[in-house]
Amino acid sequence: MGHAMLALISWLTLQLVSSIQPTEQGPSSTSAPGFLGSLRGHEAGIYALAVSDQLVASGSKDGSILTWNLTGAAMQDASRAMETPLQKLSGHAAGVTALTLRDELLASGAADNSTKLWNVATGELVRQLPHPKTVFGLSISGKQLASACWDGVARIYDLENEVEPMELRGHTGGLYEVSHSPLDPTLLATASADRTVRVWDLKTGRQLWKFMHKDHVTALDWSPVNFTLATGGWDRRFRIWKIHAEEVAKCRGGVCGDLVTWAAGLFFGMDVARSTMPS
Ligand SMILES: *[C@@H]1O[C@H](CO)[C@@H](O)[C@H](O)[C@H]1NC(C)=O
Ligand SMILES: *[C@@H]1O[C@H](CO)[C@@H](O)[C@H](O)[C@H]1NC(C)=O
Ligand SMILES: *[C@@H]1O[C@H](CO)[C@@H](O)[C@H](O)[C@H]1NC(C)=O
Q1: I need a surface site. Which of 10, 30, 207, 248 has the fewest CB within 10 A?
Q2: Is the pLDDT of residue 154 over 50?
Q3: What's the Cα-to-Cα distance from 136 to each of 9, 34, 48, 113, rounded to whole Å?
Q4: What are the ranges of the WD repeats (predicted)?
């Protein structure tokens, strides 16, 4: 989950910069261990961030998206790289709520409910994917884009052909986040305001597992090395769902057993509990 960690660190930096504007000297962020610099350029708060090997994209409350070149060479002159965005992508009429980057493709979701695909090399708007409500989460894997929409439906788009998306229905509340398993991109996880996390089989469009939290689930990420899933939300519980490869195969075959979970209440100490959750 190094990517997520990098995103988090960058997000914190950007948040800080946006929250301290217009004052030049903020809190002592510049003395924090590992601090490289601040990306200055947004005129309103930052809601979304995406990170790839070369680029950072940041999306703002005012609808603008900035991309930044953070490769090693560019970082040699960090002050310059950090003051000057590569591109400014304008087109969203309301706050940007989701971003994801893969190579030259950037996908953005916004409170104007228009999800857009951009070519970050040229700054061109490539395609528009209309949604009935706001998209809060996006995931790209291979030729597929998945969106987490506030209407409770996860949609799977073919990035090469403009065909109707596959729709995953079952959640009874809006979606905050969606993620393809890096290990098997035909497994997709969604996090929802209905207090559940669901894992879907993209080969069939079927729901495999439903995991319960006690409140809105706002964040999730897969392990890059196995089918372990981490989730978190308003119940202040960070949960780890251990799914074994054999269990995935069995569940696809129709037998979805209970899973072992680990829950850590970050606000109430390391109250780690072993429990099984009904599917
Ligand atoms: C980023 O900066 C590096 C080093 O200056 C450069 O080689 C690379 O082409 C830049 N990438 C983009 C996407 O502009
Ligand atoms: C966009 O979606 C939000 C809910 O996410 C809704 O309140 C709003 O009316 C929608 N706006 C448009 C222009 O459809
Ligand atoms: C997945 O990998 C993590 C990290 O190596 C390990 O702690 C965990 O036990 C593994 N999960 C399973 C189900 O094998």
Answers
A1: 30
A2: yes
A3: 20, 29, 9, 10
A4: 39-78, 89-128, 168-210, 210-251
- Kindly state if the Cβ of 134 falls inside 6 Å of ligand 2: yes
pLDDT in tens, 59-100: 999 999 999 987 765 666 666 667 788 999 999 999 999 999
DSSP assignment string, 103-170: TTEEEEEETTSEEEEEETTTTEEEEEEE-SS-EEEEEEETTEEEEEETTS-EEEEESSS--PPEEE--
Ligand nearest to the CA of 242: 3
- Measured from the CB, is residue 225 less than 6 Å from ligand 3? yes
Tell me the C-alpha to C-alpha distance, in Å, between residue 255 and each of 222, 246, 249, 277.
Answer: 22, 11, 9, 15
Q: Around Cβ 207, how many Cβ atoms within 10 Å?
A: 18
If you search the block for the tokens 């971003």, which residue do you land on? Answer: 99
Atom of ligand 1 minimally distant from the CA of 121: 13
User: Could you tell me where the DSSP H helices lie in 29-131?
Assistant: 72-76, 78-83
CA-73 nearest atom, ligand 1: 4
CA 11/CA 18 separation, integer angstroms: 10
pLDDT at 26 over 50: no
- Per-residue pLDDT band for 23 (boundaries 50, 70, 90) equals very low
Residue 244 CA, closest ligand 3 atom number: 13
Tell the residue nearest (CA) to atom 2 of ligand 2: 133
Q: Which ligand has its closest atom nearest to the C-alpha of 68?
A: 1
Question: Which pLDDT score is estimated for 192?
Answer: 97
Strands 187-192 and 259-265: unpaired
Q: Delineate the domains of the chain, giving CATH numbers in brackets.
A: 45-275 (2.130.10.10)
pLDDT tens digit sequence for 40-52: 889 999 999 999 8
